[in-house]
Each structure stands twice: as structure tokens, then as C-alpha cells.
# Entry
Amino acid sequence: MKHDAIAVIDFGGQYAHLIATRVRDLKVLAEIRQPEDPIEMFRGYKGLIISGSPSLSAFGEDSAYTTAIYDLPVPILGFCFGHQEIAKHYGGKIIHGGREWGHTNLEITEESPVFKGLAPVEQVWMSHFDTVAEIGPDFREIGCSRLGADGEIHRYAAIEAPKLRRYGVQFHPEVDDTIHGGRMIANFVFDICGCRPTWTMGNYIDAQVAKIRERVGNGSVFLLASGGVDSTVTAVLLGRALGPDRLHLLHVDNGLMRKDESRNVLAAFQVMGLGRNLHFLDASDDFLGALAGVVEPEKKRLIIGNTFIRVFEGEARRLGIEGHLLGQGTIYPDTIETGGTKRADTIKTHHNRVPIVEEMIRQGRVIEPLADLYKVEVRELGELLGLDRDLIWKHPFPGPGLGVRLLCSDGVPDRKDFDRMAPEVRRIASKYGLVGEVLPIRSVGVKADLRSYEHPVMLSGEAAWETLLEAAGTIFREVEGINRCLWNLGPGRPAAFAPVAATVTRPRLDLLREADHRVTESLRRHGIYYDIWQCPICLVPLSLDGKGAEMVVVRPVHSERAMTAAPARLPDAVLADLRKDIPSLPGVSGLGLDITSKPPGTIEWE
Ligand code: XMP
# Structure
């Protein structure tokens, strides 16, 4: 059966994939298309959606794309930047300014199929710098926006040209903060485009199996299998498509794994029946040797990614299977955070997206069947493929492993701008009855889709959870240069923070492994492991009040797709465990609970 499909035109940022996911949630196939794809690639769809963009302005030169899409006889809907492009193409005018950000009220001014079933006023989410100031002759306004009951009116928040079947909305229906965004997308997909809801994950499996067979032909695949959900689902899918003889798995102990992880992973693959061509390599000396003396986070990530490929190629040679395709369990956020689509900024180079891998992809030597999916979808796929629930719901663990959780330092305090930041942070913290100190180290964060590398703040004192979050939020808003906030779980109110020279070493990794193990055990013991998305533990080479060489950071988060995250509140019993179990580890001088949302912090520290 041929499925009805929608094309989502990807103008960058995180938006296009989220739109595609929303459409697939409606059981309609959605495919991502690049704006410059030839017009032939846009044919055959029942409708097109043009995404927003984090960086583009409708004025930008970047915005050159296949405008022949407007000649296609199918409905087109634009969001944000896409809305402005549609308005402009049909004779409207865009101006710089009229910025709106965050929650806004949409007032629906005319009946339109896009808004069928909605209230006269709807909460929507905005993020734009430019604005539609005039519309072309075929268009009419169907909604305007207004912040608060007596706020200023923004015209043309929603427009349509019913005869042309062109529609645009200035807000983002795909994000959760647009309360009935899903309904708007459904109205477009079903009522306006006439799609039938026939697409399911089961179809996805069939389609992928067919694609893998076509791609691999008579060849074979050699898959890097970390034991995480992504690479395991990839292994099962490849196994289904190719059979066990044409799939080789390589599990590498890179020295950056969790306690007992490799042993458990190898046992799990055996149980799943994937043991036939399962290879194991302890390459920890290679990885730790390559990382020796390196401090800078992006450099560490590159080294880890490159070493994976070197080790993989060496092992392929040894086994005489150099001609096999390299299989990876890459999922969509790995690509986007590496700046993997033309218009996205690099936030972090994911290990499976380092330049050597990019080159291998260009040469057609890599196969990544899950590269279009988010983790939630991978998990759904895993369930359909019959994977063990414990494996499917295991917390995500990054490819570079503890390598990005073991912070390094040359020992030189990084106090640039402290004279400005420190007094502001203290003043804000004291308003909430807390002590606030800026820490002389940095971690990675993300602001407005761009990478940041800034300082954390540590808040000490007792306060309600809501108060802590409010204090953190105020600091992020008011103090430039801060992207993370910790709540001190250690004893006292430390006042002196000194970085200690430290790089990647086995003893430090062992300490981190032990801290990580203790926290995970506590989460499991108190039955909340599966309630949270992920809980990275970091070791930061910082001495608090001169007491030891390492600060441990616990970072529990709730998330849906890892593109955004909220700090997870831990029950008192878990906090009590942490206070007891962690500071007693040798060399640990402090303990902080990371209470940062994403943005402005990322989930991982590096
Ligand atoms: P951040 O820290 O960017 O992480 O908020 C988002 C999600 O991605 C995971 N992550 C990685 N996964 N290779 C991976 O396979 C990587 O290089 C990598 N870096 C971050 C992170 O754990 C979180 O789930």
C-alpha cells in the first residue's frame, strides 16, 4: 500500500524534525527535505510544511531555495520563518522587528480550516525577530497575537490564501507550549491535505528493512555496538534485514564505560541471539593514551570519535572484513547538535559525527538506519522489535561515555569577568536567602540554539525546590556569562573554589565510576530510576575550601527528546543517600546537584 506523505522543508534548527515527528504521531508519513533539493524530490507529497529557522531572516541570502515548490498543486503551510517566506513569495512585505518570544495569545479573527475546533483565543509559542507587515492580494489575516489582555496587537500572526491553499502562522505549532498545536497540524494534514492515517512504526520497520537490504546488497555490516538502546535497536534491525551471518558486532571497552558495563553488555547480546559474530576489544589503553593531557572538551570529543574509527578499522583488518559497511546507531539529535544540517550551529561534536566519519559517509561507507529518529521513537521501535524493557528504558549514555563527564583543567583559575559577575550573583542569591558563588571553571551550554561555554554558579543554603529554581532562573536571566547552577549538597557553605590540574586518568575514571554506581543504585533502590530521563554524574577538578581535589555533580533531568530538559527533583531519601555516600569517597571535596534547565545548560557538562 502506498502511504500518503507530507514533506517538511528543513530550514534548520531543531524544528523540522519535531514537525515530522508530530505528523508521524498522526500516523501519516513525514519526510524531511532540504530547501535546495531539486523540485522532483518535492513531487508526490500530499502537502508541504516549511519549518522555522533559528538563524535565518527572510532577508538573508541563505534563504535561496527551490521556490518552484510554490507551483506545486498541493497545500503549503509555513511556520515562523516559513510563514514569512510564504507571505513574501506572494507579494507581502517583511520587516525587521516586532520581536516576540515565549508564550503569547493568538486571537483567531476569521474562520479557517487550520483552526477548526479551536477556541477564539489560544496560547501559542513565538520566537521571531522579523515580522510580516503586509500581505499579498490573495491572502487574508486569520489571526493576530497579543501578549496579555491589553498588550499590543501583532498583525498577521496567521494568514491564508484559501484559493491557493497556502497558509502561514508566525508561531510554532510543533512545540508543546503551543497548547493546541497538534490540532492545527492535524487540521492541515487531514482536512486540508486529505491524508489517510496509515503509517505506523510497524511500517517503518518494513520500510527500513527493505532500505537496508537495498543499500547493503550482497555485502555485510560491521556495527559499533555500545550496548545502549540506539546501537542495540540498530543491531536487531540490521539482524532482521540481513540475517546473523552478514552482521558483525564490535563492542569496544574504551575505558570510559560505567562500572561492569562491558561485561553486562556482552551477556545481553548473547541472550538476544546476537552472539554469533560478536567481537570484543579492550581498547582502553588506546583511548586513555590518546586523551592524555587533553583539557579542552571539543578536543576530547574529537579524539574519542577518531579513536573509535581507528580501533574499528584495525579490528576490521584483523578480522579480514575491511569491505563491510560501518554501522552506527546514530539518532537524529546526534546530527543536529553537531551542526549536521547546513543551518545548525555546532553545540557538541557527537562521537559518531567527527570529520573522519563525515568523510566515510560521503564515500558511502556508513549505514545508520535510525538517523531520522528521536530516542522516544527508537524506544517504540525497540518495543516492537521485542527488546527487553530494561534495555529499552535504560538511561541514555553518550558515546564518548565518562569522557565527557570527567572534566579536566590546567589548574589555572578562570576568573575573567568575575568582578562583574560575582557581586551580581551574590546579590540575587541573597534575595532568596542563599549564598551564591561563581565557579572558576566552565561547562558547555546552549542559548538560542547556539553553543555557550560559560561558568556555573553554586548556591548554598536551605530553600524550597521552587525557590532554588527561581533563583537559578533569575541568575540566568540577569547575569551574562552564567549557563549553569548547582545546589550545594555538601557540608557547610564553601567560599573558596580552586581548580586543580587534572586530565583523563584511570584513577579519576574509577572514582567517577564509583560515584556514578552509587547514585544509580540509590535511584533504583528508591524506585525512581525510570521516572527520570537521565542522570549524568560529573567529576569536576575543583577543590572546595582546600579540602580535596574533586567536586562531584549529580545532574538528574526530565526530558522528552533531549533537545530541552528540566532539572528533576529528587526525593529526600535519595538526597540523604547522596549526602552520605558521595562525600565519603576519597579525594571528594564537594557535592553539587545540577538544577539547570536546558537551555541554558546542556544535559552533559561537555
Ligand atoms: P546534551 O548534553 O547536548 O545531550 O544536552 C543531549 C543528549 O545527547 C547525549 N549525548 C551524546 N550521545 N554521542 C552520543 O551518542 C555524543 O557524543 C553525545 N553527547 C551528548 C546526552 O547524553 C543527552 O542524552
